[in-house]
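Exercise 7.
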Amino acid sequence: MTQVVRLTNTDGPSGLEIRDETVGEPGAGQLRIDMRAAGLNRSELMFMHGRYIVAPVPPARIGVEGAGVISAVGPGVDGLQVGDAVCIFPGFDLTEYGVIAEQIILPADAVVPKPANLSFEEAAAVGMAYPSVYGGLVQCGRMQSSDVVVIVAASSGLGLAAVEFAKAHGATVIGTSRTLDKADAIKAAGADHVIATDEEDFVERVRELTGGQGFDLALDSLSGPFVEKLVEAAAHEARIIEFGALSMTPGSFGPYPVIAKGLSIIGFHVVYNLFDYPDRRETAMEYVMARVASGQFKPRIDRVFSLNETVAAYEYLAGNTQEGKVIIRLG
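Solution. The predicted structure, written as tokens, is:
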């Protein structure tokens, strides 16, 4: 028997429950993994409230990224063996699999070897953030070293990874946060500037920092009403990548500023627009894992919880006070 976290209703983290279950043996193309750590994501909070792209069917599994050690290999799996340490990325159906458990069954194509320079907790912070950033900034955003790049909600684990990523490409990086309390963490990741959107006029500050030109590329996880401000602060032919809806508030903006500036507003989902395409997945993971293994990209951990503290961990994540990734240690 192994302990598995299940979502029993759509009331949020309070609906999570730890159950004892039998895992069994992996089927064709699958692995059994003894989990060591899992990374938490805000999309899971939306999933728990029934507000995500995919609706949960209780008792649903939860969790999309982590790290562990292979304990069994199913038929038809090549290149992986028992004892291998692996990173897990969200290349699977959320309605069928989840990683917050002591032991799991997972498709083999949703893992890559864990870099030796990372702890299991650090490795659990790689699978969502860096591929999402690659897909948003490089695949969709066509980021150039000459770009001024805005990273919205830059203090999250994914936001800090995006700051680090864009700066490594030579871009000028503007990170946003609601207040300046997290400015030091955002600048430590490489941001050239931080705008506190609850304390400053975002549009005016972008214009000040860019000599009136506006930004070239934005990676936005908020969506909602903030998109209108991004449109107003954008440069001619800027690209705005929408990959989240954390505001959970409808927004609207007129088409004329978008038309007049020739803006590209592009939706991106790390599974549907990257991991579901084997060629894109391979390119992204080779790029990301090489830089993680070399130490160029370094996951930032805010706090680590135990399996028994899973509800508290998600409540902490929902409180929006973290600077970096929230992790659950599983073994």
